[in-house]
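Bit of a strange request maybe. I'm writing a small parser for structure token strings and I need a real example to test against, not something I typed by hand. Could someone generate the tokens for this chain?
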Amino acid sequence: MNEFISFEEFQKMDLRIGKIVSSERVPGTTRLIRLEVDLGAEKRQLIAGIGEEYKPEGLLGLEIVVLVNLKPKKIRGLISEGMLLAAVLEGNKPVLIVPDKEVPPGTPVR
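Reply from user aminoacidic:
Good idea to test on real output. This should exercise your parser:
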């Protein structure tokens, strides 16, 4: 069963457009990719479990939706400073959420 959150709780999420400026596989893994994402006023490192569906070189320049105010987490010795948003298909296959036209990095998503 789904739990509902209030609109006020939803408003606490800082969702922004980020542009992927570098991308590489985390050594020793097939699933993890280290991304550097331009959020306009700053760049952040994200560690994402999308490597079985996406190749690092195919992600460069892509605009994605990023949850910016997520508490940083250490993954395989690397700090992930946010989370990208993706739909999850059957078999746990991620599909990135991307804008349908160019959007400046750092643009809020509501």
